[in-house]
C-alpha cells in the first residue's frame, strides 16, 4: 500500500503542477483577450463613425492601414522611411530621458536627504518645474542644434517628474530602519545604499513612467518647430501641410504604440522588482 501511495504521489504532484500552470496561463491571458476585444471594438466604432461623418478629414481604419503600408514600403515625400522617422524620435527621447534619470535621481536624493538645502533653494528650483518645456524651444533653437537641441528639451520635460518622485520617496524612509543601521555601526553610504535607495526606488520607477510620457510630448512639439528633416513629429507636420490626414494619424498612432511599449517595459521591471506592491487587492 505504501508503495502504491509512493508511486501515485509523483503523478498527483505532476497533475497539480499542470493545473497550476493552466490556471496561471488563463489568468495571464485574460487581460490580453480583453484588450484585444477593446481594440477591435474601438476599430469597429471608428469605422462606423467614419462612414457616418463621410469626410476626408476623418479617415477610416483601412485608409490608415493603407497609409502605414505605403510609408513603411516607400517612405515619405522626401524618401525617408517610416523606420527612419521612428528611430530618430526614439533616439532623441532616450538620450534626453537618460540624462534626466542620471541627474534627476541624485538631485532628488540630495534635496530629500538635506532638508535645509531644499528649503533654502526651493525658491529657485520649484519655479522651473512649472515652466513647460515648449517655452524653452526658442532658446533651444538659438543655443543648440541637432540632437543636442532635442535632448535638452526632452531632458527638461523628463527631469522634474523623476526629481519630484525621488524627492517625495525619501520622505517614505522609515526612521526606525535608519536608526537600526546606525546602531550597528553602518556608515552614511551603507544607509543610503541599503535603506534609502531600496525604499525610494519604487517611486523613482513611477516617476520614470510619468517622465516617459512627458518626453514624448516634448519631442513631438520640438520636431514640429523645425530644425530637422526626420522624426515622427516632422513627418506629421509635413503631411498636415499637404492635408493628408491618414499619414498624420499614422505618426500619432506610432508615437502612442512606441510610448506604450516603453511604458510596459518600465511596468514589467517595476512588477519584477517590487512584486509585493502588486499583491494588494480589495
Can you walk through the features of this model?
By secondary structure, the protein is mainly α. The chain contains 10 helices and no strands. It has helices spanning 2-53, 61-74, 82-113, 115-129, 137-143, 147-170, 175-183, 188-224, 232-241, 245-273. Helix 3 packs antiparallel against helix 8 (188-224), helix 8 packs parallel to helix 9 and helix 9 (232-241) packs antiparallel against helix 10. The longest helix is centred in the first third of the chain and has 52 residues, at 2-53. The protein is flat, with a radius of gyration of 25 Å. It starts with a helix and ends in a 9-residue tail after the last helix.
Radius of gyration: 25 Å
Mean pLDDT: 83
Largest sheet: none
Low-confidence stretches: none
Query: What structural class do helix, strand and pairing data support?
Result: mainly alpha
Cα distance spanning the termini = 46 Å
Count of helix runs: 10
User: Strand fraction band?
Assistant: under 5%
Q: Indicate the percent of residues in helices.
A: over 70%
Count the beta strands.
Answer: 0
User: What's the SSE pattern?
Assistant: HHHHHHHHHH
Q: Tell the overall outline.
A: flat
Essential attributes:
282 residues, mainly alpha
TL;DR of this structure?
By secondary structure, the chain is mainly α. The chain is 81% helix and 0% strand.
